[in-house]
Amino acid sequence: MDDPSLLIRPMTLDDCDRVSEIRVRGWRHAYRGLVPQPYLDALSVARDAERRRARFGQGNGAVLNLVAERGGEVVGWAAYGPYREGEVRTADAELYAVYLDPDRLGTGVGRALLAESVERCAGYPRMFLWVLRENRRARRFYERAGFHWDGAEEPFEAGGALVPEVRYVRTLGG
């Protein structure tokens, strides 16, 4: 999808507050009814942004963050890098996150962020991602983009509840 009004670019330190707002709003929207409500209510944009700013620029550059900007406003965020098998990084890629301003769902922003992340990981053999098992909308989104559930499942702890996640994979070029 070519949309000249949409710019996908590397995230900057100045984007941290807006990315945190998108992430927290995205969680509250996408995971309502799937994750305990007190957990969602306790999410804090300010705390998330503080952690994000503190971590920004640290590490070895393997984890990359992209933002989608339309009309000068950041409307989406994605993060990707090496696949994490526990604490070990593997030869595969992982999509760690794709979140949009909930008001921008269905506008092509998510597809553009995902496509750019996949393209930038073309040197890896595969790309994995984890998605909440009951998040049907996200699962359909990833399936339309060529990902499929590989049978792996593990719980994600959220507010004392175990919420099942399933792993999706897509073969890349590498």
Secondary structural class: alpha+beta
Strand order of the largest sheet: 1-2-3-4-5-7-6
The percent range for helix content is 25-40%
Cα separation of the termini: 24 Å
Q: What number is the mean pLDDT?
A: 92
Oligomer: single chain
- Secondary-structure element series: EHHHEEEHEHEE
Based on CA atoms alone, the radius of gyration comes out at 16 Å
Main sheet?
Answer: 7 strands, mixed
How much of the sequence lies in strands comes to 35-45%
Task: Point out poorly predicted stretches.
Answer: none
Total number of β-strand segments? 7
- Categorize the overall geometry: globular
Number of helices: 5
Would you spell out the secondary-structure blueprint of this structure?
Elements: E1 6-10, H1 16-30, H2 37-42, H3 45-55, E2 64-70, E3 73-85, E4 88-100, H4 109-120, E5 126-132, H5 136-144, E6 148-158, E7 161-171
Parallel strand pairs: 4-5
Antiparallel strand pairs: 1-2, 2-3, 3-4, 5-7, 6-7
Helix pairs in contact: 1-3
Description:
Helices cover 30% and strands 39% of the residues. It is of the alpha+beta class and 174 residues long. A 7-stranded mixed beta sheet has the order 1-2-3-4-5-7-6, sandwiched between helices. α1 (16-30) crosses α3 (45-55). The longest helix has 15 residues, at 16-30. 26% of the residues are buried.
